[in-house]
Amino acid sequence: MGESYSRCGMRCSTCAAYRAHSATAEGRQRASDGFHKYLGARLNPDRLVCDGCQAPDAAKPKLILPGCKLRKCVIYNGFETCAECARYPCEDLLGSSYVNREWAAKRIGGPVPEDEYLAFVEPYENLIHLHQVRASLPSEAIAEPRVPEVKDRTVALPASLSAGGEEWAALRALHRVLAAVPSFTGQTYARETAMAKERQYLLRMLWALGREGTLSCEGGTHLELTAEELMAHKIPYSWEAMQRRMTMLEDQGVRFTLVPLVEQETGRRGWHTERGSLRKKGWKMELRFAEAAGGEATLKELQRYTGALECEVGTKAFRRFSRADMRVLAPKAGV
To answer: What digits encode the pLDDT tens for the residues 259-316?
Structure first.
């Protein structure tokens, strides 16, 4: 068969999971063992049959990563591979492009045999393949990606709150913070897919701290939650991603701080793993608002707002919160 590449540049034609190579139980087991040894992924051999990333969705293909954001991005833009995109290589592509011979050798602690390199490493050196494809394309084949449209569903602050006196200042500050979250968007389909999740995780952090956080004055007034309490809200454990998320609202005067509660020692259990994942205990999260964002008063309004939402609308509370819908706090007529 001729050369065939996935949308992000992996060589489907020599991939051990490609249907042509995984037709037998022996072939699927070989693929599973090789992926585990060289890529660190233990996959069920019975599911290791892939029709290839270029297969049209209308054919309902079997894919190893059916929800891949890079594949969806390329299809959304009408490209064959990422090499046709004017934003190539984007951060999402670079973030998934780490496999090479040196990386694999370090993983197994020794040199990679040539036959196993060709079977389990070289097919996934996607940037090398994409650079070659890119070099073969005429300039007119390179195009700007379509910018996905993101609908801002923020609910305007009720007139009775926006026109109120100083007693409503902290609530207005809180609304400005929540209304800023939808502004964090991506300029490609893949980036927007990632940012949509980041917006939700950021809102979940604010929600969890407001609803369950303890108000403390030690080191400046703040709300705090333990790792166990925060992670119960299904926030990913990546420390690198958490650090980025914690800075997203800094311009709005929002300060997140992760405070280790145990010492971190190389090769021993601490508050994060050697691979950079946060552990489920051994740290806490603190939330502060700068004085310009209302300080302690806004922290208390966050607690009052999340409590009122949960009391009034129950299971729909977080959805209302994610839209900064504060109608639940508006003074009732005649009150």
So the answer is: 998 776 655 677 887 777 888 888 999 999 999 999 999 999 999 999 999 999 999 9
For residues 284 and 176, membership in a common domain is answered with yes
Domain boundary among 97, 113, 141: 141
Q: Measure the CA angle with vertex 125, ends 121 and 128; round to 5°.
A: 145
Last residue of a domain, one of 141, 167, 194: 141
Same domain, 192 and 320: yes
Structure tokens at 168: 């409503």
Element of type H or E holding 214? strand 214-216
Of the chain, the end-to-end C-alpha distance in Å amounts to 77
Residue 251 lies in domain? 159-329
Domain assignment present for 272: yes
Give me the DSSP letters along 258-295: EEESS---TTS--SB-TTSBBPSSSEEEEEEE-GGGTH
pLDDT tens string 210-266: 999 999 999 899 999 999 999 999 998 888 899 999 999 999 999 999 999 877 665
The model carries a pTM of 0.85
